[in-house]
Design brief:
Length: 206
């Protein structure tokens, strides 16, 4: 285990910042590259003084956003055509497409932001956003914010305990649980504020 962890650290060190950017981009194009494998060893290298934390985070975010935009534009330009042709085989007809459009018009920002923080879901958020033709500037802002937060968390884990793979393996489920709980709280607060009835002014004329 210790030898494998050291090998990962060596690989991340060798690929450097451009390699991390490319790997993060590919990981957001549905290529099965778990970002934890990249960013936790990179965070350990920051602690060792062999990488710069802010530059590492910037490269991770750039890769995250560029890969997500690639998937977004594929869904934006071709997703509806595919669904028109094959949607009935995927149980995704015009009614569901309309529901998706309505949902993203009302809640696209919070969905993109929080979805990018959920392991297992984060890689897929670009597709429904692209399908619903979400505003690309808003998509970039919220996917960058969510992806940047998750990258910062992983780099922080690597900085604190990345040299000990057993500790990473032990604590990651707790860290993911805390993040998911935080996401749930963000969503709850959002919907409470979103659904809060508006109080009309009581001023009248005399």
């Amino acid at each position: 285990m210790e030898a494998f962890a050291q090998w990962l650290v060596t690989v991340v060190h060798d690929v450097g910042y451009p390699g991390i950017l490319i790997a993060m981009a590919l990981g957001n194009m549905l290529v099965p590259i778990p970002v934890e494998v990249i960013l936790i060893p990179a965070g350990y290298l920051v602690e060792q003084g062999q990488m710069k934390g802010l530059l590492l985070l910037a490269c991770a975010m750039a890769g995250d956003i560029s890969g997500s935009l690639f998937s977004f534009y594929i869904a934006f330009h071709f997703g509806r055509r595919i669904l028109v042709a094959y949607g009935k085989y995927l149980f995704f007809g015009p009614e569901r497409m309309e529901l998706l459009d309505r949902f993203f018009v009302s809640h696209g920002e919070i969905s993109t932001l929080t979805g990018r923080l959920v392991p297992g879901l984060r890689h897929f958020m670009a597709f429904p956003a692209g399908l619903s033709h979400m505003n690309v500037k808003k998509f970039t802002l919220y996917t960058g914010t969510g992806g940047g937060l998750w990258s910062a968390i992983l780099i922080g884990v690597g900085y604190l305990i990345g040299g000990n793979r057993d500790m990473v393996k032990h604590y990651m489920p707790y860290i993911e649980g805390i993040v998911i709980a935080g996401v749930g709280l963000m969503i709850a607060v959002y919907f409470m504020r979103h659904n809060k009835p508006k109080v009309e002014g009581s001023g009248g004329q005399s």
